[in-house]
Amino acid sequence: MKITRRRFTLTTTTAMALVAAGTFGLPVRAQIAVSAADARAIAKEAYIYGFPMVDYYRIMWAYFVDETDRQYKGPPNGLYSEANVYTPADTAVQTPNSDTPYSFTWLDLRAEPIVLTLPKIEADRYFSVQLVDAYTHNFDYLGTRATGNDGGSFLIAGPGWTGETPDGVTKVIRSETDFVLAIYRTQLFGTDDIDNVRAIQAGYALAPLSGFAGTPAPAAATPVNFPTPLSAADERTSLELFNLLSFILQYVAVLPDEKDLRDRFAQIGIVPGETIDFAALPGEMAEALKAGMADGQAEIDARRAVTANSGNLFGTRAFLNGDYVNRAVGAQMGILGNSKEEAFYGLFAVSEDGQPLSGDKSYVIRFEKGQLPPAKAFWSLTMYDLPDQFLVANPIDRYLINSPMLPDLVTGDDGSTSIYLSATQPEGDMARNWLPTPEGPFMVVLRVYYPEASVLDGTWQQPEVQVAG
């Protein structure tokens, strides 16, 4: 088949230039000057690269920008704690945990660094603070595994900061991006432990560097005109994903190993602070960009189909090492997931016969004696519906089974522990080990917090899901 190569130039005269300097409403020019075939190939790259960043922004919008969203926490640079674990009513983030009450802050580091202060926490209680940049890289951690339970003050600085470290700072941590999400997870030992968790959350604190050090505050950063995000579903099909990516790239400096990639993106109009008027595109070009998105999603789906756990999906830039497909798979399987050394995720999506899990059947996950997930902190099995990947409402309000529940579970005569998955409650003692499913398709995620080496090196293997009826 012969491909006719044509050149298109798009001039966008009504787009807003949402630039960090704060100039809004200026006319900008976003040019597309490649063939439709080349545009499709570049759009595929840009979709895979940009999807996690755009989805991250959707969550930040809901939590920290849109005051009308019922899941709104408050503005950036505030610290907000959830007094309880997540339930099916929490739908901003796919596959949330329901083990650890969360605390959040979205740091705007453009004007000055922010200092996070942690209290001393009892030695047997796990907690972590996950630091996630705008790329969705987990660039550092605080907490039990990373820094211990003795507390301290930690300075989080953006890429442009060159100041002096004040007295009282335990560690300086640098981010590659101006905006950083900090996710606090505090272990809950049971329902009667919630007041203890709330007391710990009350001890979490933050302050701008000037406030911490008692020095004059710098000039405030220019207000940002945050664009409305796409829905989670529309991110996979709407060309506006590329305009949202252009907005985000204003706050993400070009790194040397990504310069060529960003230059290719510019060939289809993805330029920091500029927008494309997709309605003005020739039909062939618009279809090429849409096809590129579909190509990107197909590659993500193919990788996801052979991904059994989170081992290569979340981590630092160096750990991911340019594997943007894995980064996108991580975003779609469970965005904002932990790096494997902090929490290892195993996926139960099919039964031993290779069939997808569905609520019209009953299943068993059986851990043989001595083969429960090896965790230095704790483990959990959490139920999610598909395709939304949200917690599942059920008559007993049980969304997971975790290791703190072991004293209440039934153990087999041979020392094994069986978890029963079904839409209807099983009879007798099996009900004590019941994890309710939805009526339709579902998946179960195993979380192993602060995993032992046998989990990370593959010595320990999760069991298969057995069909029970």
Descriptive notes:
With 469 residues, the protein is an alpha+beta fold. 22% of the residues lie in helices and 20% in strands. The protein is built from nine helices and 17 strands. The protein has helices spanning 36-64, 194-203, 209-213, 240-249, 259-266, 283-305, 317-320, 324-334, 453-456; strands spanning 80-81, 102-108, 114-118, 127-133, 138-143, 152-157, 171-174, 179-186, 205-208, 343-348, 363-367, 375-385, 400-402, 417-422, 434-436, 442-451, 465-467. The protein has a five-stranded antiparallel β-sheet, with helices on one face. The chain has a four-stranded mixed β-sheet with strand order 7-6-3-9. A hairpin with a 4-residue loop joins strand 4 (127-133) and strand 5 (138-143). The longest helix is centred in the N-terminal third of the chain and has 29 residues, at 36-64. Mean pLDDT is 92; it is low at 1-29.
Helix and strand content put the structural class at alpha+beta
Q: What pattern of helices and strands is seen along the backbone?
A: HEEEEEEEEHEHHHHHHEEEEEEEHE
C-alpha Rg, in Å? 24 Å
Work out the number of β strands. 17
Helix count, per DSSP? Answer: 9
Shape: globular
**How many strands, which pairing sense, and closed or not: the largest β-sheet?**
5 strands, antiparallel
| Beta-strand percent range | 15-25%
Strand order of the largest sheet: 1-2-8-4-5
Mean pLDDT: 92
Separation, N- and C-terminal Cα atoms? 52 Å
Low-confidence runs (pLDDT<50, min 5 residues)? 1-29
Determine the fraction of residues in helical runs and give it as a percent range.
10-25%
